[in-house]
Amino acid sequence: MNYDFYKKNFTGKNVRIAVLDSGVYLPDSQITHYNINDVRDGEKKKNIYMDYKENMHGTFCASEIRKIAPDAQIIDVNIADDLFSIKEEDIIKAVELCMEIEADIINLSLKMEKFSEKFFEKCQEAYSKGVFLIASSDGELSYPADFPDVIKVVSSEQDLEIEEVEENFISIKNYEFNCNLFGKVYKLKSSNSIACAHFSGLLSLILEARPLASNKELARYIFEDVMEDKQDIEQEGFVVNEKSVAAMSSDPHILINNLSELNKNIIGYYDMERKLFVNYKGEIIPDKDYNEILEINPYEYKRNLLTNKNCFRSKSHVYLGIFKGQSEKGYLKNHKFGRFHYINYIKKPVIFICSLGYSSSKFELQLELYKGLKEHNIRSENITYNPLGILFGFEVYDYPKNVNIPETIYSINHDLYELSKQESTDLVIANIAGGITQLNTYNRNNFGALFFAYRNAADADIIILTINSGINLDRLERQLAKLELENISKVILVISSQFYSTMQLESYDEVNIIPASANQLQSFYEEVKKRFSKYEVFSYNEVEEGKLTERMVGFYNGICEGQRAGRL
Which InterPro entries does this UniProt record tie to the protein (predicted)? Predict the structure, then answer.
């Protein structure tokens, strides 16, 4: 984009730029002043020059716009209270005002840290009416900068004065900002806020030059080069061939117990004791009756191969998961880090399954929910990091070793959104790998980072937290308190079928799990239920009996009733 051409030939004439900020201290006849307190009370005072010397943020932003676009009409909308803080409801009211007075550009050199459905929808409404929304970002989650149709602006060290990073994403070179007000010169380092105002000014020049173009048409014009490069390449999913057999280290009963949902092309599994393939009745499958071996590693770490490939030379041999000696991660999807820079609003219900540690029966629980909800005609799309999910048609991802924020958040949000927007999808279930925290002070393994990314990628309607018996309940209490502070609406506790011993939990080595006895499970279940009485607690037996599914069906129907009531 040749911005110099527009700077030389246009001045922003007849373009209306609203500055939603702390007020503008510029006695300029081309500036119209509003105070959100008056607007909220039904009064729309304008052309009133206000003294905002106490906080110059809005004044500096307006000054930068004026330098770039000397003839643009600036609309000052003061949304700050007496303490110069900003409330979400006032920003929403200000956006409504901007639509009413037909602003062309809304400059939002500000940040809200939490996603808001109301704010999102108001920005969508403004965009649909042809308004440009320009917002600053600090490189972390920033709203409204991270809304899809808002142009995000950052200030950074770079060679180019201005760069279109991706669609709706602008980066402006750091420079010294000078503002001369009433004989006093302010010299400041460039900031994201000033960069945002700078681009709002530039955009007004383009709007003056192309007055009949819509905001969508101008966005395509500005970001044309990067939009061409952003064609998404879909990762090919794995197709199970006819007469395939499965070889895996985990208990084959996960296949046997879920035959109704298992891919119909998988006719049997590898019997570890007998060292041959059998069908689901335990009968030997002759070599001539199967065509392909699917070897599956359901764990997050590399394993040695279970079978000797030389014994099956005439058979196709496919690896699903991560194995030692295999360079490729067999048919696991990757989160597309760096390809997205915004947060979509996910309207369908979202359920997260997570655990305090790891290996806590999360995948088995996910299968139970998937199967049970389907019996009630509730269609779920599922994300997991367990390669066994491929056999059931789930979206299976490789566990990211580096969880970079906010790139991982954007990517996960995109993956959840793409699943949720399918017409056939009623809700989305995400089984989050690893744990929400480390098990002890020795074995950290980046636990909690992926859960943090998911938590910020979407507002989960319910979090199902699985717990192995033997876990320290004080640690559980601390984690639940953290979730409460983060306004997690609903947490359900499930006691898994696994057990951690005290010796394992205090080990420097990898923590292993063992099956829990019936007495251990019952005792731990009763202890958890008594200590955490305000939470719903389910034993794993109750999960298998369908009681958790019944709870999720009630939850889903309740959401549907609420939506219907809202429409009425």
Answer: P-loop_NTPase, Peptidase_S8/S53_dom, Peptidase_S8/S53_dom_sf, Peptidase_S8_Asp-AS, Peptidase_S8_subtilisin-like, Peptidase_S8_subtilisin-rel
Q: Give the C-alpha separation, 527 to 516, whole Å.
A: 15
Output the six-digit token pair for 392. 């059931």
State yes or no: pLDDT of 72 exceeds 50: yes
* Strand, coil or helix: 474: helix
Element housing 497 (H / E)? strand 491-499
Which residue is associated with the tokens 């809700």? 427
- Side-chain half-sphere CA neighbours of 142 within 13 A: 21
Q: Where are the alpha helices (DSSP H) in 69-136?
A: 88-100, 117-128
Q: What is the mean pLDDT of residues 160-167?
A: 91
Residue carrying the six token digits 């399954």: 353
pLDDT, tens only, 292-305: 999 888 776 666 66
Phi, psi dihedrals of residue 257, rounded to the nearest 5°: -80, -10
Using an 8 Å Cβ cutoff, are 392 and 369 in contact? Answer: no
Residues annotated as catalytic are 21, 57, 193
- CA contacts within 13 A on the Cβ side of 37: 7
pLDDT of residue 313: 60
CATH 3.40.50.200 range(s) for the chain read 3-228
Backbone angles phi, psi at 294, to 5 degrees: -105, 110
* pLDDT bracket for residue 502 (50, 70, 90): low
**Number of Cβ atoms within 10 Å of the Cβ of 347:** 11
CATH T-level topology, domain 3-228? Rossmann fold (3.40.50)
Residue 164 bridge partners (DSSP): 170
- How does DSSP classify residue 275? T
Measure the N-to-C terminal CA separation of the chain; round to a whole number of Å. Answer: 48
The predicted model scores a pTM of 0.86
276 falls in which pLDDT band (50, 70, 90)?
A: confident
Q: How far is CA 191 from the centre of its chain?
A: 26
Q: Is a pLDDT exceeding 80 seen at residue 370? A: yes
8 Å CB contact between 483 and 491: yes
Cα separation, 279 vs 276, in Å, equals 10
* Predicted local distance difference test score (pLDDT) of residue 444: 52
Q: Which of 278, 330, 276 is nearest to 303 (CA)?
A: 330
Two tokens, residue 48: 């009133």
Q: What is the pLDDT of residues 177-206, one digit of tens each?
A: 777 776 777 787 779 999 999 999 999 999
pLDDT cut 70: percent of the chain above it: 85
Q: Is 465 helix (H, G, I), strand (E, B) or coil?
A: strand
CB atoms within 10 A of CB 285: 18
C-beta separation of 492 from 536 below 8 A: yes
| Side chain identity at residue 294, one-letter code | L
For residue 409, report the phi and psi dihedrals to the nearest 5 degrees.
Answer: -65, -45
CB 361 within 8 A of CB 437: no
- CATH says 350-567 is which class? alpha beta
Q: Which two tokens stand for residue 496?
A: 């898994």
Distance CA 350, CA 63 (A): 44
Torsion sign (Cα): 88, 90, 92, 95: negative
Which of these, 4, 12, 3, 9, lies nearest to 201 by C-alpha position?
A: 12
CATH 3.40.50.300 domain locations along the chain: 350-567
Q: Are 368 and 549 within 8 A, CB to CB?
A: yes
